[in-house]
Design a protein that fits this description.
Structural class: alpha+beta
CATH superfamily of the largest domain: Cupin
CATH topology of the largest domain: Jelly Rolls
Oligomer: single chain
Order of helices and strands: HEHEEHEHEEEEEEEEEHHHHEEEEHEHHE
Helix content: 25-40%
Distance between the termini: 24 Å
Strand order of the largest sheet: 1-11-6-13-5-4-2-3
Strand content: 15-25%
Length: about 375
């Protein structure tokens, strides 16, 4: 079990989206939860988002997986990295690195990225628009972080798959040892390279862009067949200049556009559905033989555990704990069963310890439905 040596509340108050910092010994006695061989294995999997980046002789190469075994046999001893996105979806040991950050909103959490680099391996100077905690595993990595981007940095194109900048003056220039944590807010340029074979774990938090909200809401409106009405104006009169958009018509059209945006129930459901969808592939596999409610209840009463699929988002609104949003779906329960919603969303496992002895038939049926969708699973 990994435990931060700093208070998350104090960190948020002083540093979150304000300034970068290195937390020396953020995790004491840190041990890697995954080996380089396991990273290589993940990089060969079809469903896993993996990358290879090389900068030998300043010639940048970036490739996306899956990779064959031949790839690993032809590598040199310096200047390359393998990167695994959403490693928490595929490796239970690595996923434990996310647990110390569970005080953060789940809808903000993006993924755990793992990088294995040999000497001088890295991805070059760049700027991200999300918050990241970079945990140093085995080995050492030299990190530089610059001042907040206010338009002073120039992008460069060393490779089409890498968004880099030309360089920056560092405000942080240090070497990370195992267990150290580098926090970088959005907009701060940074560059890290391995001094020796090295593991890094990046816990990333990302909010949606305004563009994404608008685009996703448009898709939501179409998918739910909303707003299928035209503007009608039976009081229309002639106007002097047929190219003119009259102020009254503009106001009418604006009212139509705002009608859905000003409906709290529509916005609540839209946000819940959108925010509960992961940006990364999930390991969702429905059981070959569907479970019955009776089998699920017996499993629970016999002390069995039901686990949520790693990375699956289950959310609820503060003002309405009777509705859950799970992987983009809306789940509603009766008033007397509201407790199951917070349990599903706040815990990643279900058992008699948190469900209680008197679990209702409706709750058993809901859990059974989620198991049969592959969202929760029983290890057999």
């Amino acid at each position: 079990m990994y435990q931060l040596t700093v208070s998350l509340d104090e960190f948020l108050a002083e540093y979150w989206q304000k300034k970068p910092i290195i937390i020396k010994g953020g995790f004491k006695n840190f041990e890697d939860p995954i080996s380089p061989d396991e990273i290589a294995g993940l990089a060969m999997e079809e469903d896993v988002d993996s990358r290879f980046v090389s900068n030998l002789n300043d010639q940048w190469v970036a490739e996306h997986g899956p990779f064959s075994a031949d790839k690993f046999e032809s590598l040199g001893e310096t200047n390359w990295s393998f990167i695994i996105q959403a490693a928490n979806h595929w490796h239970s040991g690595a996923a434990q690195l996310v647990e110390p950050f569970l005080g953060m909103p789940n809808w903000l959490f993006d993924d755990l990225m793992i990088s294995y680099s040999v000497k001088d391996g890295g991805v070059g100077p760049h700027i991200d628009q999300y918050d990241v905690f970079i945990i140093q595993g085995s080995g050492q990595r030299h990190w530089r972080v610059g001042a907040l981007d206010e338009g002073q940095y120039k992008e460069t194109s060393r490779h089409v798959a890498l968004r880099q900048i030309e360089g920056f003056e560092p405000i942080i220039d240090d070497i990370l040892e195992p267990g150290d944590i580098l926090y970088i807010p959005p907009g701060f340029p940074h560059d890290g390279y391995a001094l020796e074979p090295s593991m890094s774990y990046s816990v990333g938090f990302r909010s949606p862009k305004e563009q994404e909200l608008i685009s996703n809401f448009a898709d939501y409106v179409l998918a739910h067949d909303m707003g299928d009405v035209h503007m009608h104006n039976p009081a229309l009169t002639t106007q002097d200049g047929n190219g003119k958009i009259q102020t009254s018509d503009l106001q009418h059209l604006t009212t139509m556009l705002n009608s859905s945006l000003q409906n709290p129930e529509i916005i609540q459901d839209f946000m819940g559905c959108m925010l509960s969808q992961s940006r990364h592939q999930l390991d969702i596999v429905a059981p070959e033989q569907l479970w019955t409610a009776e089998e699920v209840q017996l499993h629970i009463m016999n002390g069995g555990v039901i686990n949520r699929v790693a990375g699956l988002r289950a959310l609820y609104h503060e003002q309405d704990s009777g509705i859950a949003y799970i992987n983009g779906e809306v789940i509603k329960v009766a008033e007397q069963d509201r407790a199951i919603i917070t349990l599903l969303c706040d815990q990643d496992w279900l058992a008699i310890e948190n469900l209680g002895q008197e679990i209702s038939s409706a709750n058993v049926a809901l859990i059974c439905e989620l198991i049969n969708k592959g969202y929760w699973f029983i290890e057999e």
